[in-house]
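To: structure desk
From: M.T.
Subject: fold request, one chain
Message: Could you run this one when you get a chance? Sequence is below, nothing fancy, just the single chain.
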Amino acid sequence: MTADPEDIISAGDRLLQQHPDSFSSRFSRNKKLVTKMTNVGSIRLRNRIAGYITRKKAGC
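Reply: Done. Structure tokens follow.
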């Protein structure tokens, strides 16, 4: 099962709203935080959410 890009964006935006100071522009740190803050079972989905958050924090 795949997730739509809208699902990735909404999950990432929700996490950024709830924990704005927790995330950084480092992907490896964001991966760990997404794992702790959600119950995402898929590694690929976790990486996509963490990548979206990383891009938002880096200003890309």
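Reply (cont.): Helices lie at 5-18, 27-37, 43-58. Let me know if you need anything else for the meeting.
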